[in-house]
Design a protein that fits this description.
The chain is an alpha+beta fold and 331 residues long. 40% of the residues lie in helices and 24% in strands. A hairpin with a 7-residue loop joins strand 9 and strand 10 (289-293).
Length: 331
């Protein structure tokens, strides 16, 4: 039995520049962190006593005789990519709902890759794990996704990720004091909007605008440098990070009419009216989680004002995708 534990992520700045359609022409960069909310994948060799060869349990249960009969695209893609020949049973559990903007689909793909590699007796680097997840999601199953979620899920930590025109990707851990890192974490609070959405529908329109508006998208990437300056300097006020988030939200919201809606706008305006300085809607938009930046003394007022929405406390994490249980089997 293999069990992997793979974190979700929060992307602060540069989202949109991590799509190949943008960075292969203009380059890109993001500032993001993994958090202590996880996707868990358990995987075991299936004993040869069943009519089916593959059993996959997520929001539904699939029992199939072949890989290509599996409906779940990421499972099918991973098993084909790794040329799996033995029968497997795969179970998914998550701390947070899927389709909510925290990179859950990439955490699933990355965690499953990690588990199946272990079943096959192989160990790959975290960077290689990320690059394989990108290959599977973008090229094998054809998802309209960027390239940051897989990096953050596999590598973990607080990172400055650069996407180069030649297609290469660099991961630079952000080095700033533990005191400032804790201070930043203490200024953040996150809520679930109650809306789960198919990010592919939103991303299709967003990609059209990413191609049409490269200057606006690049402006989101340029904010990464300013954010790094705020985090790395002894002189900058941490509140500047929140003001910058608010500017980034205005730019992102203008990329597509599908990014926000009446519910998201109301949540955002309510938070600002009760002490938030800025915020970030996670992922492609349209719903999911919203993270706000506010002085800690204002958090109670914001939580009270948004009492109809689930508040999700979180901490930064730095381990990335890990194998937490390994028990070899004899079949």
């Amino acid at each position: 039995m293999i069990i992997t534990k793979t974190p979700f992520r929060i992307s602060f700045f540069g989202g949109g520049t991590d799509y190949p359609a943008h960075y292969r022409e203009h380059g890109g960069q993001v500032l993001a962190t993994s958090i202590n909310k996880y996707c868990y994948i358990s995987c075991r060799v299936l004993p040869p006593f069943f009519d089916h060869k593959f059993r996959v349990a997520y929001s539904r249960i699939e029992n199939t005789k072949t890989i290509n009969e599996i409906n779940h695209p990421a499972v099918r893609g991973v098993l084909n990519y790794l040329s799996v020949s033995q029968g497997l049973e795969i179970h998914h559990d998550g701390d947070l709902p899927a389709r909510s903007g925290l990179g859950s689909s990439s955490s699933f793909t990355t965690g499953l890759l990690n588990a199946v590699h272990a079943i096959q007796g192989k160990m790959v680097s975290k960077y290689e794990l990320a690059m394989q997840a990108i290959e599977i999601e973008q090229n094998i199953i054809g998802e309209k996704v960027g390239s940051q979620d897989q990096i953050m899920a596999a590598v973990g930590g607080f990172n400055h990720v650069l996407f180069n025109i030649d297609g290469s990707i660099q991961v630079k851990p952000v080095v700033f004091s533990e005191e400032k890192k804790n201070l930043l974490n203490d200024h953040l609070l996150m809520f679930f909007s109650g809306i789960s959405r198919n990010s592919q529908d939103i991303t299709k329109q967003k990609l059209v605008n990413i191609i049409k508006k490269p200057t606006d998208v690049s402006a989101l990437g340029e904010m990464v440098e300013e954010a790094l300056s705020i985090l790395g300097s002894q002189n900058n006020n941490i509140l500047d990070f929140g003001y910058l988030l608010n500017e980034a939200w205005k730019l992102k919201r203008a990329l597509s009419s599908n990014i926000s809606n009446d519910t998201i706008d109301l949540i955002y305006k309510t938070a600002l009216a009760n002490g938030a300085i800025g915020g970030k809607l996670m992922g492609a938009g349209g719903g999911g989680f919203i993270c706000f930046f506010a002085p800690p003394e204002r958090h109670k007022g914001i939580r009270n004002a948004l009492a109809n929405y689930i508040h999700v406390p979180f901490k930064f994490e730095k381990a990335g995708s890990t194998i937490c249980v390994y028990e070899p089997q004899g079949f």
